[in-house]
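Trying the structure run again after the queue cleared.
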Amino acid sequence: MTSPASASPASSSREQKLVLAIAIIASFVSFLDGTVISVALPAIEADFGGGISVQQWAVDAYLLTLGSLILVAGSISDTYGRLRVIRWGLIGFGITSVAVAVAPTAEVLIGARLLQGAAGALLVPSSLALIMTNFRGAAQAKAIGTWTGMTAGAMIVGPVVGGLFVDLASWRLAFVINVVPIAVALWLLARLTQQDVRLPDAHIDAISAVLCAAGLGGMVYALIEAPLYGWGHPQIWVPAAMGVAAFVAFLWRQHVATRPMMPMDLFKARNFAWGNLSTFLVYGALSLNGFVLAVYLQEQAGLSATAAGLASLPITVIMIALSSRVGALAGRIGPRVFMTVGPLAMAAGALLMLAVDEDFDYWWQVLPGIVVFGLGLTLTVSPLTSAILGAIDTSRSGIASAVNNAVSRIAGLVAIALIGTIVGGQLDLNGFHRAMMVTAALLALGGIVSWLGIRNPAAPGSGEEPA
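Done. Tokens:
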């Protein structure tokens, strides 16, 4: 077997194409599953019952393990090899996808989603690491751009294809659409001739991973089930207290550990710290909006799963059309104004959806808000990522990206856990309006935080302080 550095140009080119295809497919299936679930939630609840709580757990079980393990997944990849870990992740994701599809009860489905999130956590960091290992310079930037663009396609494919399966066959089949791309990725892995890359000094901080998962799990359980039992019930306040204690212990360990899972000194960089706070607010709002819109459009407005999946399609179209131009402008002007105006525009889009009424009309009540929301999201995403990663030395870009990814997943986890409290236990018209107002408030806070905290980097060689 050969390494990328020692391969001939022709062999290297072939290997790079294989590596890029594997990285794209491995990440695609993880993102795809996160979008498929939204349109399948009403059908899942119709089969299993349990109301909005079951729907929350169907989403949050995946996000819980994904968000808490994605930080440690990078060190697992370094310890055991990127190719091996991607293979483990793909096989695990395929098996758990089938387990979700055949789940006889809600409890089995939720358990399978927990395992699926753990498998998904192995895929994204290892995919990026594989690209970083096999590409250099301009080729690396182009490969990452291709990876980003192709994986973003999951935003289009997931809701539409998932909706078609729900409407024409069964929600269960929507979860096995991953099996074919997983099989292709495993076949491509078998064709690679390069040696796997392992770092001899890699360290897996298993204690931090357990503390993080236990902390988030306890708090999320309490948030989801509190509307049913009340905060005074021991079944709520005991796991909540244990979760808070475990998460505090996790943060303490990150301060004192020799090789922490989440190096806290990263947050000494101003744009990294404020950018992640903005990420938490913005991505929490995105998850809340996506969940509520997909479920309400089916359960209350009477749209089919396919139509509900298509309802948010304009957002993705706008992002594909304008993201590169926004990224270029933000590179010249700086990210601060984009990270301020973008979330505020999204907040306006969420408020426009307060026009939704009992006499439902997508074109006049939802579409205008969707378009404004999409424009705001396009203004936000690329500058936000650039500001956060640009604040950290390139040698630490991997862990910085992993931390930001984890923050966005945890934000979605918490927001969805709070849905029962936000909508009052039932996603009727009043609940939908309350959710849109909370979404708008979170986004407005995200814009304000960005204006107060983010600083534009000084022009190279200017000798000026960041603006």
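Residues 9-48 form the longest helix (40 residues). Worth checking whether this holds up in the mutant runs.
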